[in-house]
C-alpha cells in the first residue's frame, strides 16, 4: 500500500514537472489572440497568480503558502492591487525569495501590472511572449535568475512606456531587439552578464552591457545613438577598431569600452565628444598616438587609457582639457618623451598613473602644484635627474612610487612633512646621500630603498650603512679658503639676525594691537596646545558643527600675545573630511582679502590616542554667523535681541559679493566656494562680513575660456547645501563615483 502510493506520488511529480517544463518553453502565440477576446477581470488575475503558484516547484521560504482562498488575492504575499481598477493586480514583488520554477504564459492576463519584480530567484525557462499584453508595465526586474532564450521583441515593443528593464545575470541569448530603441521613456536598461550580442539600436539614452559575450566589431549603427549619454560595453570580446562614427554621439558623457580586444588608434573624432566626463579605453590593443583633440573635451573628470600599446609622446594639450580632471591613468603603454610641465595645471588631480611606460627626462617641478594629489605612480620609466623638492608640498599624498627609474641626487628633506604617506617606493634608482629619519620617515616600513647603491642612514629597518659624516667633514675643512668664506658668511648672518631682532622689537613696541598671523612662522601649534586652548575641546567652547567637523573657541598665547581664535577640528572618521581639510588648505594657501575669514595656522598631527588629528585655526569673529542674525533662535534675556538694520544687511551683501569677486576674478586661479550660505558668513566686531568654510571649494580652469564657470562647475558635480546649491546635472557623476 505504502509502496504503491509512494510510486504513484513519484509518477505524478514527474508528470507534473515535465508538463510544467513544456509549458515554460511553450511560447503560446495562440493565447495572445485569446486574451483579447476574453474579458479580463479580477477573476483572470486570480487565475494567473494561481497558475504561477502551480509553476513554482521550489518555495523553501514558504512565501506562497499565503496564496490560498482564505484571503483575497490582493492581500497575498508580494501582491498589491490597483485602487482604480478594483481587484486588478498592480504590483508583483517576490524578489530574493528563493523561488524556483518558471513564469507562466497566463501572466499575459495581468494587464494592469505595473511592477514585475522577480529578480534574485531561480526562475528558469523563457520570458513569456504574452507579456506583450501587459501594456502598463513600467518596471521589469528579472535579474539574477536562470532565464534563457531570447528577449521577446514583443515585450519591448508593446510596453513603450517602460522606464526600467533589468534582465542582467541570466542566460539570455540572441540579438538585442532593435525595438529597445523605441523605449523612449527608458531610463535604465541593464542586460549585463548574459550571452547577448549587439543588435540594431537607436534612440537609446543609456546602454549597459557589461560582461556579456559581445563579440565582433563595434557596429557602425552605434553612430546613430545620438541621444546616448552612457555607453558601457566593458568586459566583452569586442574586436576591430573604434569607429570614427563614435564622434556622432555628441551627448555622450560616459564611455567605457575597457576590457575588450579593440585595436587600431583612437579616432580624432573623439574631439567632438565635448560632453564626455568619464572615458575608459583601458585593457585593449589600441596603438598609435594619443590624439591632441582631447583638448576639446573640457568636461573630462576621468581618463583611463591604461594597458594598451599607445606610443609617442603625451601631448601637453591633454593637460589643458580641464582643471577638474581628477583621475588620469596612462600606465602600461609605450609612451615616450617627457612628462610635460603642463601637468601642474591639473589642480584637482587625485590620481596620476604613468607607470610602465618609457618616459624620459625629469620629473617636472610643477607637479608640486597638484595640491590634492593622493597617488602618484611613475615607476618603471626612464626618468632621470633629481626628485624635485617641490613634491614636498603634496601634503595629502598617500602613495608615491618612483621606483625603477634612473633618478639621482638626494631624497629631499621636504618629504618629511608628507604626513599621510603610506607607500614611498624609491627602489632601483641611483639615489645617494642620507635617507631622512624624522617626520614620516620615522616609520621605516613606509619607504622602500633597495637597489640604490649610494644611500645611507635612515631608520634601522632599512639596513643601510650609516652616513660617514666625519670623514667628509675632514676633507671639507681642509680647504682654507672655504673656512674663510664660511666665517665671513657667519659673521654677516649674525649681524643680520641681530639687526632684524632689533627691528622686530621696535615694531612690537610700536604696534599696539599686535595679533597673531600666518607670518608668525613660530606659530606652530600641537594637539596639546589646542587641547589646552579649548579646555580640552569642552562643550562650553563649542561654537558650531559643520559638515566635516566641529568649531571651538579657544584662547592661545603665543609670542607673548594672547588671542581668541576659532579652532575647526576635522572629524576624520567622516568620509571626505580629510579631503575637505586638503581642499580648504589648498584654497586658503594663496588668498587673502578683508572679506575672507583669515586662517592663522594649521595643525596636523596625532591626538592623545595616536589618532590622526587635523585642525585649522582661524581668527575669531565676535559676532558669529550671519545665519544667527538672520534667523535668531532662543534669544536669552540678558542679550539684546539680534537684528540687522537694512544698511547692515546691505553692507553684508556687498562684503560677500566683494569676497566672491575676489575669489572668482582677482585671486589668480579662480576658486569656487561651492557652499556659500549665511552659516558660512561671519561677522566681526564692526559687523563686517567675512566668508569662511572652504571645505568644498574647488579651483577652476583659466578665466579666459568661454563661460568656464558654467562648464566646470557642472562637470565636477558641485556639492553644497540643499537650498543654496544649484540643482544637480545628471546621474553620470554618481556612476563615476561608484566606479571608484
Ligand atoms: C470581482 O469583482 C466583482 C465585481 O466587481 C465582485 O463582485 C467580486 O466579488 C470580485 N471578486 C474578487 C475575488 O475580488
Ligand atoms: C492560507 O493563508 C493564510 C494567510 O493568508 C495562512 O494563515 C493559512 O495558513 C493558509 N492556509 C493554508 C492551508 O496554507
Ligand atoms: C486569460 O484568462 C483566461 C480565463 O482564465 C484563460 O482562458 C486564458 O488562457 C488566459 N490567457 C492567457 C494568456 O493565459
Ligand atoms: C536597424 O533599424 C532601422 C530602423 O529601425 C532599419 O532601417 C535598419 O535597416 C536596421 N538595420 C539592421 C542592420 O537591421
Ligand atoms: C642614468 O643617468 C645617468 C646620468 O644621470 C646616465 O649617465 C646613464 O646613462 C643613465 N642610465 C640609463 C640606463 O639610462
Ligand atoms: C617597490 O618597487 C620595486 C620595484 O618596482 C618592487 O619590486 C617592490 O615590491 C616595491 N615595494 C613596495 C613596498 O611596493
TrEMBL record:
Protein origin, superkingdom: Eukaryota
Gene Ontology CC: plasma membrane
Entry protein name: non-specific serine/threonine protein kinase
Enzyme Commission (EC) number: 2.7.11.1
The organism of origin for this protein: Linum tenue
Membrane topology, from the record: Single-pass type I membrane protein
Coarse class of the protein's main subcellular location: membrane
Residue positions binding ATP: 568
Xref: InterPro entries: Kinase-like_dom_sf, Leu-rich_rpt, Leu-rich_rpt_typical-subtyp, LRR_dom_sf, LRR_N_plant-typ, Plant_receptor-like_S/T_kinase, Prot_kinase_dom, Protein_kinase_ATP_BS
Membrane-spanning segments: 6-26, 484-507
Subcellular location: Cell membrane
Keywords from the UniProt entry: ATP-binding, Cell membrane, Glycoprotein, Kinase, Leucine-rich repeat, Membrane, Nucleotide-binding, Repeat, Serine/threonine-protein kinase, Signal, Transferase, Transmembrane, Transmembrane helix
Protein kinase domain location: 537-740
Pfam family, one: LRR_8
Protein's UniProt keywords contain RNA-binding: no
PANTHER family tied to this protein: OS04G0122200 PROTEIN, PROTEIN KINASE DOMAIN-CONTAINING PROTEIN
Molecular-function annotations in GO: ATP binding; protein serine/threonine kinase activity
Protein family according to the UniProt entry: Belongs to the protein kinase superfamily. Ser/Thr protein kinase family.
Amino acid at each position: 500500500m505504502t509502496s504503491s502510493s509512494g510510486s504513484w506520488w513519484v509518477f505524478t511529480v514527474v508528470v507534473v514537472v515535465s508538463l510544467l517544463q513544456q509549458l515554460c518553453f511553450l511560447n503560446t502565440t495562440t493565447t495572445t489572440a485569446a486574451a483579447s477576446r476574453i474579458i479580463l477581470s479580477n477573476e483572470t488575475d486570480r487565475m494567473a497568480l494561481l497558475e504561477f503558484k502551480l509553476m513554482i516547484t521550489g518555495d523553501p521560504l514558504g512565501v506562497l503558502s499565503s496564496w490560498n482562498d482564505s484571503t483575497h488575492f490582493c492581500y497575498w504575499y508580494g501582491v498589491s492591487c490597483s485602487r482604480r481598477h478594483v481587484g486588478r493586480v498592480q504590483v508583483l514583488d517576490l524578489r530574493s525569495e528563493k523561488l524556483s520554477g518558471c513564469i507562466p504564459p497566463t501572466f499575459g492576463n495581468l494587464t494592469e501590472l505595473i511592477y514585475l519584480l522577480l529578480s534574485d530567484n531561480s526562475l528558469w525557462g523563457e520570458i513569456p511572449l504574452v507579456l506583450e499584453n501587459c501594456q502598463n508595465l513600467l518596471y521589469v526586474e528579472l535579474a539574477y535568475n536562470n532565464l534563457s532564450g531570447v528577449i521577446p521583441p514583443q515585450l519591448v515593443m508593446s510596453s513603450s512606456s517602460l522606464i526600467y528593464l533589468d534582465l542582467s545575470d541570466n542566460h539570455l541569448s540572441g540579438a538585442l531587439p532593435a525595438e529597445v530603441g523605441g523605449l523612449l521613456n527608458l531610463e535604465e536598461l541593464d542586460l549585463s552578464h548574459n550571452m547577448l550580442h549587439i543588435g540594431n539600436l537607436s534612440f537609446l539614452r543609456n546602454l549597459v552591457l557589461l560582461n556579456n559575450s559581445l563579440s565582433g566589431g563595434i557596429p557602425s549603427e552605434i553612430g546613430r545613438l545620438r541621444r546616448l549619454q552612457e555607453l558601457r560595453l566593458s568586459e566583452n570580446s569586442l574586436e576591430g577598431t573604434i569607429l570614427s562614427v563614435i564622434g556622432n554621439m555628441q551627448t555622450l558623457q560616459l564611455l567605457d569600452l575597457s576590457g575588450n580586444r579593440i585595436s587600431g588608434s583612437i579616432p580624432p573624432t573623439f574631439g567632438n565628444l565635448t560632453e564626455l566626463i568619464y572615458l575608459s579605453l583601458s585593457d585593449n590593443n589600441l596603438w598609435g598616438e594619443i590624439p591632441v583633440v582631447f583638448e576639446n573635451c573640457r568636461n573630462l573628470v576621468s581618463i583611463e587609457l591604461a594597458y594598451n600599446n599607445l606610443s609617442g609622446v603625451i601631448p601637453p594639450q591633454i593637460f589643458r582639457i580641464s582643471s577638474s580632471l581628477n583621475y588620469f591613468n596612462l600606465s602600461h603603454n609605450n609612451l615616450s618623451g617627457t612628462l610635460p610641465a603642463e601637468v601642474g595645471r591639473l589642480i584637482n588631480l587625485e590620481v596620476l598613473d604613468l607607470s610602465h611606460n618609457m618616459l624620459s627626462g625629469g620629473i617636472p617641478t610643477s607637479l608640486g602644484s597638484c595640491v590634492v594629489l593622493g597617488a602618484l605612480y611613475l615607476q618603471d620609466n626612464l626618468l632621470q635627474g633629481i626628485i624635485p623638492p617641490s613634491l614636498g608640498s603634496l601634503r595629502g599624498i598617500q602613495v608615491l612610487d618612483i621606483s625603477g627609474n634612473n633618478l639621482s641626487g638626494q631624497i629631499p628633506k621636504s618629504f618629511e612633512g608628507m604626513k599621510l604617506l603610506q607607500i614611498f617606493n624609491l627602489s632601483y634608482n641611483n639615489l645617494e646621500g642620507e635617507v631622512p629619519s624624522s617626520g614620516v620617515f620615522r616609520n621605516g616600513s613606509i619607504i622602500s630603498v633597495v637597489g640604490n647603491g649610494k644611500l645611507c642612514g635612515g631608520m634601522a629597518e632599512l639596513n643601510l650603512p650609516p652616513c660617514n659624516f666625519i670623514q667628509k667633514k675632514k676633507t671639507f675643512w681642509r680647504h682654507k679658503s672655504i673656512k674663510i668664506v664660511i666665517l665671513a658668511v657667519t659673521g654677516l648672518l649674525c649681524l643680520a639676525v641681530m639687526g632684524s631682532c632689533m627691528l622686530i622689537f621696535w615694531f612690537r613696541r610700536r604696534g599696539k594691537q599686535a595679533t597673531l598671523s600666518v607670518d608668525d612662522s613660530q606659530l606652530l601649534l600641537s594637539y596639546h596646545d589646542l587641547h589646552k586652548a579649548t579646555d580640552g575641546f569642552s562643550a562650553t567652547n563649542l561654537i558650531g558643527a559643520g559638515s566635516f567637523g566641529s568649531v571651538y573657541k579657544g584662547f592661545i598665547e603665543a609670542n607673548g600675545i594672547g588671542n581668541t581664535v576659532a579652532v575647526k577640528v576635522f572629524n576624520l572618521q567622516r568620509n571626505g573630511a580629510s579631503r575637505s581639510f586638503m581642499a580648504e588648505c589648498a584654497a586658503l594657501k594663496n588668498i587673502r582679502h578683508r572679506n575672507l575669514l583669515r586662517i592663522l595656522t594649521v595643525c596636523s598631527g596625532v591626538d592623545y590616542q595616536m589618532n590622526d588629528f587635523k585642525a585649522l585655526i582661524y581668527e575669531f569673529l565676535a559676532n558669529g554667523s550671519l545665519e544667527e542674525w538672520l534667523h535668531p533662535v532662543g534669544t536669552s534675556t540678558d542679550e539684546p535681541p539680534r537684528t540687522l538694520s537694512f544698511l547692515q544687511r546691505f553692507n553684508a551683501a556687498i562684503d560677500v559679493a566683494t569676497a566672491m569677486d575676489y575669489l572668482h576674478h582677482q585671486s589668480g586661479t579662480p576658486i569656487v566656494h561651492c557652499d556659500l550660505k549665511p552659516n558660512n558668513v561671519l561677522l566681526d566686531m564692526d559687523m563686517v562680513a567675512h566668508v569662511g568654510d572652504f571645505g568644498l571649494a574647488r579651483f577652476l580652469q583659466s578665466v579666459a575660456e568661454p563661460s568656464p564657470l558654467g562648464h566646470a562647475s557642472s562637470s565636477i558635480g558641485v556639492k553644497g547645501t540643499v537650498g543654496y546649491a544649484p540643482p544637480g546635472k545628471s546621474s553620470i557623476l554618481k556612476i563615476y563615483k561608484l566606479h571608484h
